[in-house]
Structures are given as C-alpha cells and as structure tokens.
Amino acid sequence: MKFTAKQIADLLQGEVVGNADATVETFAKIEEGMEGALSFLAYPKYEQYLYDTKSSIVLVNRDFQPQQEVAATLVRVDNAYEAIARLLTFYEQATAKRTGIHPTACIAETAQVGEDCYVGPYAYIGENVVIGKGSQIFAHTVIEERATVGENCIFYPNVSVYHDCVIGNRVILHSGCVIGADGFGFAPGANGYEKIPQIGIVTIEDDVEIGANACVDRSTMGSTYVRHGVKLDNLVQVAHNCEVGSHTVMSAQVGVAGSTKIGEWCMFGGQVGIAGHAVIGDKVYCGAQAGIAGSIKNGNVRIQGSPAIDAKNFARSSAVFKNLPDMYTQFNRMVKEMAQMKEALEKLQNQ
C-alpha cells in the first residue's frame, strides 16, 4: 500500500513541509533510509542523519527546526515517536491475518474455537478450552485443559498455556512464553524438600504483551494476576501469587518473587530483582539491576542500586564510590601523618 505525505499528515493531524504528493510504501530507520520509505526523527542525536537520508518522508516534532537543507518531505506532528507507533499499528492491522485450522493441529472435541481463528501446524488445544474469535495460535503452541483465551489474541510458536488459566482479549504471547507453570513451592523436611501442590491459576487481563521465554507461575491457591495493559519483556519471571498492576512495564530479566503485589504504572529496568511478599506502590520507577528488598510507597518514587535507594542518593553515592581508592590512599596518608604528629607531640611533652 502506498500513502502520500498529505494522507499521512491528515491521519496524524500534522503539517506537510515539502512535496505533499511524495509517496511511501515501507518504513526505514532514518540512518538506513531509502526511496519510498517513511522514517522519523524523535531524538536530537539522530538529527545528523536527516540531512543525508534517502527516505522520502520523515516525521519530525512540530517544534523541530532543521539546521541545513533537507531533501526529504517533512511531516510535522506533536510527537514523532508516538506518531510512528500509530502508523506502525495501522500498517500491521491492515495486513491480512491468517485464518483456518492446519490439518496437523490437534484440537479436542470439547474445545471451542471462535470464528476467524487460526490454529497452526502441530498446535494442541485441550479438552474444554475456549478460544475467542479472531485469535491466532501459531505452530507447536500448547493450550491445556479448561484454559480460556479471549478474542484477537496472538500466541506465537511454542507458547505453553497450562490448564485452567484465564487469558483476556488482545493478549500477545511471544515464542517460548510459559503461562501457568507451577510456582516454586517446597517445604523443607527431614529427607529433603516436599513439593507443595500449586492448585491455583494465572489470570492475564486484556491488552497484555509478554515477551519470549518469559514465565508467569500459577498460584498455590487463588490466582497470579497480570492486570490490564501490562507489558513484560523477554525472560521476565513472575512468581506464584504475585499481582502486577495495570500498565506496569518490565524490561528483560526482571525477577519478581512470590506473593509480591506491584502497583499501577510502574517501570522496572533490566535485571531488577524484587523480594517476596513486598508491596510496591503505584508509579514506582526502578533503574536496571536494582534489588528491592521490601515494600515501597506510592507516588513517583525513583530508586536504584542494590539494596535499592533513592535514585538521586544512588547517583551521589556512585560518584563517591568511584573515588574510594583515592580517598582510601588519602585516609592512610592522614593516619600516618597524625601518628607522626602524635609521636612528635609526645616527644615535646617529655622534654
């Protein structure tokens, strides 16, 4: 599909600077631009590429003022990054979805598969599973007994959804994602560790996206909850009986220990670790590799470090930490000088 600069500007309530009839049919990064491609400029450090890009149209922020002549047609919008996301979503939605049941798929007689669904090669749909209309289940995905899947979901190859789990509408699960594996529950005994049965489920609400090889464990009792709009990156681990509040996002390798409650609109950088039974308030922003050992109150809290502390305090502490070798040398020199002064003073007093 081809679109003109004017059509794009009309869609985004933007303003064309240049050839309103310039057309594009694909997307490209601004530094890898090509004729017929649409790019965007959202960050100043990429401005240098704007003046040489071969892209036909570039989205820029409305207040952007180029410092040199630009060959490409510009479309000024309120937020270039948000605008490109809208266009990419529009482009994806315009692409025809797969439909139909592959002959090698294994679907139980009691399962209910909605209209316009796709079930790929060697996928397994268990007894009494319910799948809403328009959902796409790709190759080798397993959905076990009595699980419920909403409408317009996408489960990429090799996703595993264990028995009885509940998944909402428009949920995206990437390859290798596991929903509903047993929580890590073991009771120490005289002869080792005795497994505690995990008889609960996982509930994933609408508009959640979970990355490749991420795991959300089923609860011991009740449910582990991933609330509306949550986004989890690859290799994230959410343990049993946790609750992740709506619109919270987690980067790769975040680990959340059991029975932790996380509020809404939180952000966790890569490799953050959260101890069990913690209660994390709303709008808590945590830097990469931080270790959260206990509960944190609501309200635009920014933390970093392990154990995690206020982010500004962490930055000041880091500045001191990198100077510790020199400070240690100075300290030893001061101790030596003080000892020499003390010795000299004692000699004077004994004269």
Specify Rg, calculated over alpha carbons: 28 Å
CATH class membership of the domain at 3-94: Alpha Beta
Summed up, the helix count is 5
Based on the structure given, which CATH architecture of the domain at 3-94 is correct?
3-Layer(aba) Sandwich
Percentage of residues in helical conformation: 10-25%
Mean pLDDT: 93
CATH topology of the domain at 3-94: Udp-n-acetylmuramoylalanyl-d-glutamate--2,6- Diaminopimelate Ligase, Chain: A, domain 1
Taken as a percent bin, the fraction of beta residues is 25-35%
Taking strands numbered 1, 2, ... along the chain, how are they ordered across the largest sheet?
Answer: 8-11-14-17-20-25-28-31-34-37-39-40
Tell me, briefly, the overall form. flat
Task: Describe the 3D structure.
The termini are far apart. The longest helix is centred in the last third of the chain and has 27 residues, at 324-350. The chain is an alpha/beta fold and 351 residues long. 19% of the residues lie in helices and 30% in strands. The chain has a 12-stranded mixed β-sheet, with helices on one face. It is flat and about 105 Å long. The protein has 5 helices and 40 strands. Among the domains are: 3-94, MurE/MurF, N-terminal domain (Udp-n-acetylmuramoylalanyl-d-glutamate--2,6- Diaminopimelate Ligase, Chain: A, domain 1, 3-Layer(aba) Sandwich), CATH 3.40.1390.10; 311-351. A hairpin with a 2-residue loop joins strand 22 and strand 23 (192-195).
